[in-house]
Amino acid sequence: GTNQQYEFIQVTEPRPGVGQITLNRPKALNALSTPLITELNHALQSLQSSPTTSAILLTGSEKAFAAGADIKEMAPLTFSSAYTQSFIESWSNLTQTLKKPLIAAVSGHALGGGCELALMADILYCTKTANFGQPEIKLGTIPGAGGSQRLTRAIGKAKAMELILTGKSFSGEEAERWGVAARSFAGYEELMSESLRTAEVIAGYSKVAVQAAKEVVNKSQDLGLRDGVEFERRVFHALFGSEDQKIGMRAFAEKKKAEWKHQ
Ligand code: CAA
């Protein structure tokens, strides 16, 4: 359950329906070691299966969302050890099976794997001064948790190539301007309160509609336009089979607040 004690993360419920995961390895700027990722996977799965959680907020500290994969853990790896344990593959589980919306609130460093983790979220919010980047090239390696793919889809090849080849950072303000972040905020307090507010808004809607909305938007990243539009239409049709569609449209006609079935 959500009260599970973890070593490297904290799980709380700051608002009804909102599960918050706070990365909490301050001495290493939330470097994403395998034990931390294992805890994060566990917490996300618990929140996914918790009937009381409707939206998930993932954050770090004011100073660091996460400064990357754990360099000290990676340093001694060999090709065969990385290959045979499929190092980093467990990161793909983080969001692949997550049907509930995930909001990342990023302040401070979001570097390497930290940037990649933020890019896995459904909605990314950050401070204007957040420090994003894929500095792996400086370590003699490359992004390994989807950065070259997700960043390139988010900001285009020209900018992604420059960032990944130079290892140069970009700010939260740039992240918003380039469409990586949905919004950027002047300060940390504002980031956290607005992230919570958005999570709460989403948690107030029909769960079945929210899950469907996330599913169809994510499909746009994998499908061509024709197939994507067709997929969307099928899911749209399917929602006419949900009670919440009846509840929502009836409430509109009666000028009342919808009381969702699947809350
Ligand atoms: N892994 C392990 N430890 C890390 C770490 C990381 N990614 N990032 C920071 N730390 C540790 C530091 O080693 C230091 O520990 P000690 O006190 O024991 O020395 C502690 O966190 C504090 O860090 P700094 O003293 O360096 O703090 P700073 O404020 O001077 O600098 C920083 C902050 C610019 C973020 C700097 O820590 C830094 O450059 N970190 C590494 C960033 C990086 O290269 N990330 C990419 C990792 S590779 C990757 O992620 C692969 C992938 O694609 C999955």
Automatic annotation (TrEMBL):
Cellular-component GO terms for this entry: mitochondrion
Question: In this entry, which stretches build a coiled coil?
Answer: none
In its UniProt entry, the species of origin is given as Triangularia verruculosa
What top-level branch of life does the organism fall under? Eukaryota
Q: Where is the signal peptide?
A: none
Q: Which Pfam families match?
A: ECH_1
Name under which the protein is recorded: Probable enoyl-CoA hydratase, mitochondrial
Tell me which UniProt keywords the record has, alphabetically.
Fatty acid metabolism, Lipid metabolism, Lyase
